[in-house]
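fold-stage: in
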Amino acid sequence: MSLRRTPLQRTPMKRTRSKNQPTRKRQRDTGFPESVKKLIHERSGRRCEVRQACHGDAAVQIHHRRPRGAGGSSVAWVNQAANGLDVCVRCHTFIESAREFSEAHGWLVSMNKKLRPDEVPVLLAHDAVPVLLSDDGTIHRPTKGD
C-alpha cells in the first residue's frame, strides 16, 4: 500500500480588526521641513559642522540642538534652522553620548533652561569662537565690541 503525500495548501491569514479596536493614527512627521533642510545644507556645505569625531565627513543627518521630546513638539521653532546642525553619523553619536560636553559647546540646548537655540552660542568646526545661528540659515559672528 502506498501513501500519497500531497503538499499542504497554505492560505494567507486575513487580519481582521474588531469593531472596538481603534484605527491606527498616522505618525506625524516631526522633523525639519525640506525648506529648512535646504537652509542648513547651504550653511554647512553638506559637511559635518561639529567635526569632533571626524575630519569633515559628509553630513548625512541633521541634529536637533534642542531635542523635540518624545512624540515631537508643537513649538514651531524646534524645526527651524537655528535648531539644526548638519552632522555625520559619528559626530551625531558623540553629541548624544557626551551630553554635558555637547551642551557646553552649544551642540545641545538644555530643555530645562528657557532659551531658544538662536540665543545659545554654538562652536562650529570652522569657527574659532562660538557663533549664533539664525532661523534664516545665516551665522552671526561676534564682533570685537561684544
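fold-stage: in (second)
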Amino acid sequence: MDAERLIESVRRALAASRAAEDTVAEAWQAQCLAQAIGDHLAHTGPRELRGEARALAETAGRGGQPPDHPAVRAAGGPRAARLSGIADLPAALRQLAALLAESGIALVSVACATDEEGLYWACVEATDAADEAGDRVRAMLRRLAVRERTRPPGQTGAPRDLRDLPEASKLTDGADLSGLADLSDLSGLSDLADPAAPG
C-alpha cells in the first residue's frame, strides 16, 4: 500500500481513539510507519535524504513495544508492514510530520490524564520519540526544498547532459555534446578522472 494511504488510515484511527489504550496503540502504529518509511528511504530514497532517513528509522524504532491491544491484533501487527512504496515523497513526508505531531499531542493527553505510573512514562518516552522523528521528517522536507530551489529551470531529474548543469555554457560553447550521455556506461572512468589513481 502506498505510504500516503497508510498514513491517512493511521491518522483516522488515531483521531477516532477515545480510550487511553486505543490512543497508545495507534501512536505505536504511527511510530512503526515512520520507521518503515525511514527504512524505505534509507535504501531507495534520494541520496541527500538517506542519512536523515536512517536516523528517522532508528528514532521511530524507540517508540516502545507493541501493545497487547485488540486493534493491533486485528490489524495483524503493524500496518506499516503493508508499505509498498512512496508515490509522492514531499506529500508523504508532510502527512507523516502531521501524523507524528498528532500522535505526540494525543500521548501527552493520555499522560496527563492517567494515574498509572507505567502508562505515564510509556507515553512520555513515546512522545519524545514522536517529537524527534518529526524533527527528522522536517529536516528531510527542508533538504527537498533546497534541492528544488537549486535545480535548473525545467529540469525534473538528475542532469543527463552537461548542458543541464549550471554555468555549463561557459564550458561547452560551440561544443557538440550529443554523445556524452553514453559515457556513463563505460567502465573505469572514475580511475581516468582521478589523477591520484595508479596508471
